[in-house]
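Protocol step 6 of 9: fold each sequence in the batch and record its structure tokens directly after the sequence line. For illustration, a two-sequence batch is reproduced in full.

Sequence one:
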Amino acid sequence: MDSNRLPRRLAAILYADVAGYSRLMGDDEDATHRTLCNHLDLIAESVQRHHGKVMHYAGDAVLAKFDAALDALSCATDAQARLRACNADLAAEQRVEFRVGVNLGDVIEDRGDIYGEGVNVAARLESLADAGGICISESVKVAVGNKLVCECEPMGEQRVKNIAEPVRAYRVLLTTSTSLASAKPAIKLPDGPSLAILSFKTVGGDVEQQSLADGLRYDIQTALVKLAGLVVIATATTNTYRNKDMAVEQAAAEMGVRHILEGNVQKSGNRVRITVTLTDAVSKQVVWGERYDRVLDASFAVQDEITEKVVTALDVKLASGEPAKIWRKTIKDPKAREYYYRGLHEYLKGNKEAMAIARENFERVTQLAPDSALGPTHVAFSHWWDAFRGWSDSPSRSLDLAGEWAAKAMTMEDADGQAHAVMAHVLLLRREHDKALEVAQQAVSIRPQCVNANGHLGNILYYYGKPAEAIEHVKRAIRNTPVYSPWFVDILAASYKEYGQLDNATAAAREALRLKPDDLDARLVMIDAYRRAGRHERAREIAQEVLTIDPSFSLAAWSMRQPYREPATLTRIVESLRTAGLPE
């Protein structure tokens, strides 16, 4: 063995280069450069999303490394789908299109870069790809096997420059209908048990039946989300599958869970029939199923029984060992329960008009069931959403009301942690940072897998000055709701920036812009990140985008709304934004 030979390792390599770059630069240098920078950011985001690492940029080219061939190929198809969407509104002669080559081979890692034949083959495969297309080696095709995210067309053995042996290549067949959903692979399953509860179905369009079905599902969800050993996908995601005719395996794969809980509800008078099925989507086997014929009374016996059966079937150990703290046993009054279910039905619609109706129902719950935290908790949430979404004529008053109702719910015996999440945000905006952090941590301790509890804690940790911990909790929130809100990603991007991971920060910000194209917070993160990275011209370009979207934007007004614990952090960010061209 040659002791002077540098160590090599197997890696999947993605090499992307612009087709016709010289012509594009000759036609319009400035426009091409701006589009290229946007596209390079987008590719970097796709690399990060698929667990890869950008090794370097070479003018108009990108070199990235992955541990798995499937991740590299999934990244390539994802990036090309996104690039195609970006180019859709441009004239054909103005489109900046990439060719992509993907190879699996040996590489040398040295001083933060990679070299070797594995890289060279990927670069040669890129030259064989069509503009906007992908070319892969046989080693990639074999490694991915039946997990291919797309079809391939054999190109035969290809003689390529500086490679001694012919390379067997394949053209990846991408159609114009390829979407982001079809381009990306299924989300990786968690290590422990995982579950999504789909909307319970009803017969006909009866609102009362649907309210009961939504209430039953929500009760089960609320109980299960308290279990530390179980990942439960948030209702924001599962609601998107309502009325969709989709196989259990597909829904589970898209949400990244192993188990799916489904239900049917039929109500006639005071009698109800509930059918529930728990399916293991990996084995395609029904783990447990039951039919309940019940008379609706003042208890939550059916919800408790279903929840307990699910926990047993998934072999999840209760954190406290006290089921009474997990199962909901409140709201004794049947009329109060009816108002509660009606409120939930409206609340889950997520719009201004429905939220007002929901609040009226929850206020009735507080009157009829004064010892239950459910009413005041959800009244608090309704006020918080009014403030957060801009549905209120007086956001400050809505926040005060949210705090008052949350404080009331927190003191009750059956407080379930949701009111804590609302109160923590209110305290943050009041600049009571230590108290906000304490209450937010209490919310997560009660509801360890709750999306909102983790998201709010991540937000507070960011403003508190603990970006690494913020990243951990926001990523947990995003994992538990694959259909996530842009503000989660805004927090993640800002936290990455303050933690010094600038590539991850800009990648997350690009994802926020994909979800919400007019997102100012994501653009502000990008401005600061690009300035820190020395890309001052790009920072100035994005600052102009901010002023185009909001001509009245001012740093003084923006900074007044930022509850940073350390004034020096805000001062530094404001100076960075000012230098990029944003007005005082």
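Sequence two, same batch, same settings:
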Amino acid sequence: MNPIQWFVDFYNKHIPDFTDNFLWGQHTFIILLGVGLLFTVWSKFIQFRALTHGVSVVRGKYDDKRDPGAINHFQALSAALSATVGLGNIGGVAVAVAVGGPGAVFWMWVVGFLGMAIKSVEVTLAMIYRDTSDPDNPHGGAMWVIKRGLGDKVGGLAKPFAWIVGAIFCITLLISTMTGGNMFQVWNVSRITNEYFAVDPRVTGIALATLTALVIIGGIKRIGAVAGKLVPLMCGMYIIGGIVVLFVKAANVPDLLLYIVKDAFNPHEATGAFLGATAWFGLTTGLRRALFSNEAGQGSSPIAHSAAKTDEPVREGVVAGLEPFIDTCLVCTLTALVILSTNTWNRESVGEFKGEIAIVDGVNQQGEVVGKVDASTAFDSLPALPPPAGWYKGNRLFLLADVAEPNHDTGTKRVRVSARIIEGSEDADGNGVKDLVIQWEDAPAGAVLIDKGVYQDLVGAPLTGHAFDRAIPGLGKWLVTAVCWLFAFSTMISWSYYGEQGVIFLFGKAIAPLTVLLYKLIFCVLAIVASWPGFLDTDAQLGLLADLGTGVMLLANVPIIVLMGYQAMRAFNDYFGRMARGEMEPPHEAPPIAKVIEGEDVE
């Protein structure tokens, strides 16, 4: 058995229960919502400070070249946003709506609002305790907060205890870096590029790994410079494209937003490609996808913000509060509205399957009784797809079936019977696929097909691309694919820096050049591994990959920020008290936006 297949088998057997029952049990959601509410009330709704004062800081009104740090506030926000505004906004939202229904978006909003307070607190703490012994290469994050804020201050047994807690956080940081910050991104890009252009996923993985390596060699200054230019470009492209789709579909946005709220408490039944979902499943799906997207509570973005030039910790904290708003309340909402307005989430079948299918009981390699699809693998044709899409080797499809017992994931009885195309390509005349070979997967025991309607199995980013195509043929193929490449690339370079800081904390600065080089090599190799055919196939596996990294980081970071949160509140009161007394007037007018983006020092 090859190493990739071994990992997939191990992942499918052990990870789901650990992720669902431990990392993302009911206790997780109660704690996260509770912490968000606590910080919101305790900080006197810091969210509104972020939307007002935070914007002024980002515009450069408070920039001072004499302050310690490597990049300005705008570049720090861009570097953090380049990590948060990624495939979670395109692929993650698509997964949320596809499996959790429209109501999942409402819970994403809740996390986005509460996340603004959480992010402001954790970044303020990181700024208070960051290491600026090398002003051009500062170090910060939850590991430094617990080490310097508890271990170095208290001393004695607190010192080794604080280092252990910081080390645990760094280990979870590396897990999240390699999964959500790397493999999740590559998998989505390789999938959508294969769906539209029939490019071998491995080629995509190698290309992304190479591009990432060229940037991360230069450290945080190069990452900040690239992110400062890339983030406005990619967000602008995507937002304009989404607005065009809503205009073309003549979508009534207020009605769609109201529908999202209603569905959060009264879920939509199964229809078309949508399997149905309970209210609880919609809530948990929305929370997971939002947390993966905006990273509030994970403790990752404070690492990027710690490189900002400032001598006022709260100033960067309010800047960080803008992240969940931009990421979740703007970009994620736009993706959801496009998917809903085009009816992509509950889309109709593309036609009828031409082969004979029977689902019978069988036994898998573990000796468990399962449902098997009993059919020959070669069929005359599949229904043709509308342009610009087509069937290619590696594409996936599914048919719908019902089972006797509710599905563990969704809480409903509707399931998918999935297959992969292993040979065949679209005919030039557009009449379907000829000489096709399909590899069927196991189906749940006792499943009964509803009909022979064939659905494209579009997971993550390809689903969002399809939504754009349903409004304007070709828009998803070109715009969404291009944006996916930009989003994934920007996320990977920022997350690689996060992981690098974890490695430096774990192994020390003395041998950092060697350990960081080895880490970057592993990071790039895993990017290629994630693109390998058969590594991940379903939206459930994709979601678990994202949830694993997010969950372990939350487990390590939340106790740290709750324990040290009072210091952030003390800093808030001091800073805004001075502002109320007129002591925090900006030293100069906002410089030209070009200077801000370029990171030029303001005199």
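Proceed to step 7 once all outputs are recorded. Observation for sequence two: The two ends are 62 Å apart (CA to CA).
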